[in-house]
């Protein structure tokens, strides 16, 4: 097996499964968010596809999901062989979620490595993903935090970027480079410049690190958050888990792993990036879904029209005179827009929420 | 009462209720066409509104509907006080339909006058309509065939036009003029010229005439059709009605009253036009429905969008980034288009028919 010298015995995959996917309304709802849906028509939900991809690399009992209480039952139903389920009482962004898993797994298996991968991304080249994953594990074994940077297919303004610097000399990670900096979603001109330079990749939010390193960075950079996570981890495998969660979780600093660790540690030279040469999409909106080759599921009549049309109830859709249309029908709602306005769809659940139509959000 | 000298005792109103309204798909279907729907949200269907308008002028037992067997039950349900129902075994255009009513009523009441008015038109100024109707009856009493020409609000290319000539000298019809000619739907430049000239009106297909005059014209111009209608009329109020209908109806020439009588008789100077100064719309498509002030029925969320959105099932519609949109949702179908393409909607049921989806047509 390629990269076979990398030891995966102590490697755990953590899938933070949060986020509503409001730009995929009305398919994606608070009660059945994006990751619980089979958006690609693969017969597996995005969460299941994420799990399947990781289960080719690590054993199922080393795969864990962090999610909220509302989604825990469906997660368990969709992933019956899952190693562990971390139920966070309320969403407090990605650092508390990943930090909780890190703190608990570090106590159970000192020196454990965790890799964190979002629940709602699509990758079909699982072998390519596995190759990058193994290099990232090698980097983690060497004591750095690794991220996988996706080779950009286009100067997208929908993603953050990672600038890579010098090649590192890490055993079994020949492509790993130091991260110069993480940058937020750029404007179009800047994105084009990034892609032209050849030294930028898309930030897919994939992080791999030794739990002791992650927790060490956290103790330095976010001591309050670290202390709270350690208290919860101490109680986790005892009868006190629920009480400690209830007491401490609401006090944790809500912060993303990018801001808590990735960005500050990159400035210290502690983050490495491994290139991801595989296809990757975060299915951010219906235009992304359509670009992936999904034309919807219903028998649509297109008269001087084109785009994505999907009726969950199988009813016939007719589109007349609109190109690049997006039409999505559920039993209780209907979205009509165009590819150009796909990102604006998030304003619909926001407006419904303001109007008290929480049943539709 | 204005125009009180006009005698309405022998005046019958005939409502040909055919036509599918394919440009109003998916609301309008073969099984529940346009005229059976409450498209204006008035609480009354278009057929009922047509009946109501006529019942202000003539007694209900002098109002008749000509329709097909599939729609007869709903017509009777919607109009319980209707004077008479003529069920045509199959649609053969407007001349056989109106001619049948004329032939039967002429036998029952020699010298009867009939006025024919489509079942799917909208007029809110019923007093204005009544004034024109009375002048048209006065013209009919004088032996001419009268039409009501709608004063054009715009240089529409969706309607045929009537060119009026010299003022006639008919008692109780001071505004009646001879018809110079009927013209088909013009192009935009011609329509603009028509409206500028001041001597053209829209052809709303409203005809009023003495039954003996109508049947006389028919005997001259369409002798075969006339003979067939007379045979059916002779049997109508006898046990032979159904047999005669079955034998003769399928042999009748399918032709519109415009081509059978209005156009040829106008060339002989036998048609008069009475101005219609009231509001009028034939609700030809969803753009017309919207122009009438109908914005749809559902609680629509418009984000950078506008237009007509209607969900028959009351579900929430969201339109993002499309202006002048048309969105119509029924339990089994969905139409998405724009005002600009409203006329093209008829291509959808045509395409469905070709595909054998007769359940949706």
UniProtKB/TrEMBL annotation, chains A, B:
Q: Domain of life of the organism in this record? A: Bacteria
Q: Where is the Nucleotidyl transferase domain?
A: 13-291
Residue ranges constituting the MannoseP isomerase/GMP-like beta-helix domain according to the UniProt record: 301-348
Q: What are the BP-aspect GO terms?
A: GDP-mannose biosynthetic process
Give the Gene Ontology MF terms in alphabetical order: mannose-1-phosphate guanylyltransferase (GTP) activity
Protein keywords: Nucleotidyltransferase, Transferase
Which InterPro entries would you find in this protein's record?
A: GMPP_N, ManC/GMP-like_b-helix, Mannose-6P_isomerase_type2, NTP_transferase_dom, Nucleotide-diphossugar_trans
Name by which UniProt lists this protein: Mannose-1-phosphate guanylyltransferase
